[in-house]
Structures are given as C-alpha cells and as structure tokens.
Amino acid sequence: MNLGIDEQTTDDLRIFGKRNEGGIYDLYNRTYTRGGEAMLKTLFQRPLSDREEINRRSSIIKHFAALSMAFPFEAALFDMAEKYLVNAEEQARNPSQPGSLGEKDIQNGVTAVITLLQQMKVFTETPGIIQMAAYEKERKAITSIIADPAFAPALRESLKGKLSYTAVAAYDVLFRLREYATIKQLLEQIYYLDVYLSVAKIAVEKKFIFPKALEKGRGILKLQGVYYPELVNPVGNDVLMDTHKNLIFLTGANMAGKSTFLRSVSTAVYVAHVGFPVAATSMEFSVLDGIYTTINLPDNLGIGASHFYNEVLRVKKMAIELNQGKSLFIVFDELFRGTNVKDAHEATVEVTTAFAKKNNSLFIISSHIVEAGEELKREATIGFQYLPTHMNGHQPVYTYTLEEGITDDRHGMIIIRNEGILETLKKGRNKKVHQV
Q1: Which spans of this chain does the record mark as coiled coil (predicted)?
Q2: Rounded to an integer, what distance in angstroms lies between the CA atom of residue 290 and that of residue 88?
C-alpha cells in the first residue's frame, strides 16, 4: 500500500533534483549499482502507507547501520552481469536479430553470475544476517533462489581458472534462457541490499534517526530537533501534533525561516513513510494516507489559470480527499497569497477552521495575515507558533526557533531601506531631472 503524493509535493520538497541541483534522493544515494540506484528512486517515488512494512524496512536499515557492513560485491561484477542479461532481454524482444554479445562478453557475464550466486550464498550464511529478524523475508527469498538444484553446479564451480567453452555454453543456456527470470529475481534482491546499505551509511554519517510508525488514523506527529537535511548548520525544532492540536497556524516575517521549517517537517514525514532515517533527534508518527504540500505553487499559464485559482483548485482537491475519510498531512505556505488581503483573510479563516475539524489529519498553515490568527483562536484544535525576528539596531536577526503564539513582525521595509533601494531610485530620478 502506497502513500498518496503528487508532483507538486515532490517538487516542493525537492525529493528529486533538477538540472544541476541535487535533491533528497541524491543525498541518500550511495548505491554501488545502476540497479540499486534505480531501486532507490522507485522507493522514493512510492512511499509506504503500511505501518508494518514501514517499520520493517526501517528496522532492516537500522540493523545494517549497526553492523557497519560494506556492500559485499564488486561493482564491476554488475556491469558484466547486467550487460550480459540485458542482451537476453533484447533477444527475447527481437528473436530474429542476432545477439550482440561476443564470446568474451558471454564468458564475463557467465563468470559474473556464478560469482554473485556464490557470494550471495556466503552472505546469507553470515551469522549477523541470519540473526536479523527484520531481514528474514529477504534472506529466505535469496536462499530459496540459491537452493534451486539448477544452480548447484554453479555453486560448486571453481573460478580460479578459465571456464571451458563447453561449461560457458551450458551456463549461458541456464542463465539466459532456462533460469533467466530467477536470476533477475536474485539481482533485484541484491539491488534492495545495495539500497539498504547505502541508506544505512548515510544514517551513520549524518546521524539521522529511525522513526517509529504508529497506527494509521491516530493523528500523531512527535518530532524533536527536526531540520532540513541539506542544511550545513541547521537549527532543529520540536513539533507535537495530535487529535487535540491537529493544526499549526504559523506566522513570522519574511526570511524568518517559515518555508524552510515547512520543508523540514514535510520532508521528515515523507522520508519516514519511505521507511528511511530522517534529519531529527527523535520521531513518532501515525501512518498517513497522503502527504500534500503547497509551498511553491506556480501560475498555470498554459490554461490561463492564475496563482489564486491554482490555490483554489489545490484546496478543492484536499477537501475531496479529506471528505473521503483519508488521513492526510497538508501544508500550505501563505494560503491564498494570490488574492487581495480582504478575500485572503476571509478565505484563510474559513478554510483553516474547516481543516481543523478533520481530526484524523494534520495541517500546517503559514500566513502573514495575523488578524486571521486572532479569529482562529476560538478553535480549540488549532495551535499557534511563530518564528521570531529580533532587531539589532536596524538589522533583523533570525533565530529560526519556534515560539508559541502569533507574531506581527513585519520587517520588509527595513530590509528594503537597508539595501538602499529607495535611495538608488531617488538618485536615479534626480539625476535624470538634472540632465533635462
């Protein structure tokens, strides 16, 4: 069972990088194989919505992190094996076409597959792997493949010398024709292992923690010291949400860190549902049906839709899913920023109030409309937090640390004056008048 997400959310959270910018996927990617790299991407594209599977995957990675185990195969083996097996797929699709592999490629491919079979047998018989209860499902799957009588000769094969032409031909028929599907299953298990070890290594290096998934529908999110994982010197924050306080109304001046905080929490929730470690000091969360963020919502010029209309459509989509009884995590950064202040005020109050009544879901709404916050205080399930700005003379100083309450900090004009924009404009105008 997979978590509901959409492209807007993965873009907001920068799950996958664009152009020359890396994403969260790249941060976790230390895989050795092309297949492992593709598998990691698939896992990020399909977060889980099943408590047992989330906790099982998390436990596997946690155990590998404790073992400090390196990937037990040479990457070159996979280059040879994959080239060899891909050719089998091409021939299956176009049987009339002659094979593109030369004798040496076949020799290398057969040798690589035999080596992988033998090394996987040793791996599954390692005491630390046998004792890893969470990995038992995968270990049994690998053991079952290797125990197939068809592979017995390969397991006994000595690779100290060059295989004979007859042996290579026989193994080639076995691997690329008779047992091709089984060999692919074995490679898939190795790709999963590559991912687990890659993520385990990141967890150790970055000191990421392993969240605990709770039952779906309880509406609980407990985060301590959460921060955005790509920051160099992050400031951690604590978040506590449940059915009694299921919505956070967030205020703060521009540049105070609201968007970064929203990304920090949302990324932790997203990555936790993948079953991966997160950038925090501790985390417990109720499993959700979906995560939807709206942080960088663009205008849709292709269909003539304004920013405001896109916001309306986004809220409508959330409303439909909430009314289906789904447990969602929903984030809006500056809700209804695309319309005038009066409409934005009224819409923010009405929509936020309606969200707060869906107590099996969690919401964070940021806004500059502090007056809306005052009206929302009548809702018992809404909590109010802000990111403060302190003034050091004419210079704003940001702590990036959450505080309770609502702030009316507005320092936009101070920043504009500090940058000398008005002075520059006036000088330019005066100079022009003088010349005339």
Answers
A1: none
A2: 39
Domain span including residue 80:
31-206
Could you tell me how far CA 309 lies from the centroid of its own chain?
Answer: 28
* pTM of structure: 0.90
The tokens for 204 are: 């150790």
Q: Is the pLDDT of residue 338 over 50?
A: yes
Q: What confidence tier does 301 reach under pLDDT thresholds 50, 70, 90?
A: very low
CA 360 and chain centroid, separation: 23
For residues 307 and 30, give the distance between their C-alpha atoms in angstroms, rounded to a whole number.
38
What is the secondary structure of 212-257 as a DSSP string?
A: EEE-TTS--EEEEEE--TT-SS---EEEEE-SSS-EEEEEE-TTSS
What's the mean per-residue pLDDT of the chain? 89
CA–CA separation, 383 and 239 (whole Å): 11
User: pLDDT tens digits, residue range 368-417?
Assistant: 898 999 899 999 999 999 999 888 877 888 999 999 999 876 666 566 66
CB atoms within 10 A of CB 382: 20
Instruction: Estimate the crossing angle of helix 180-206 against helix 34-45, to 10 degrees.
Output: 70
pLDDT of 122 reads: 94
How many domains would you assign to the chain?
A: 2
Inside any domain, residue 14: no
Q: Which two tokens stand for residue 397?
A: 């100083």
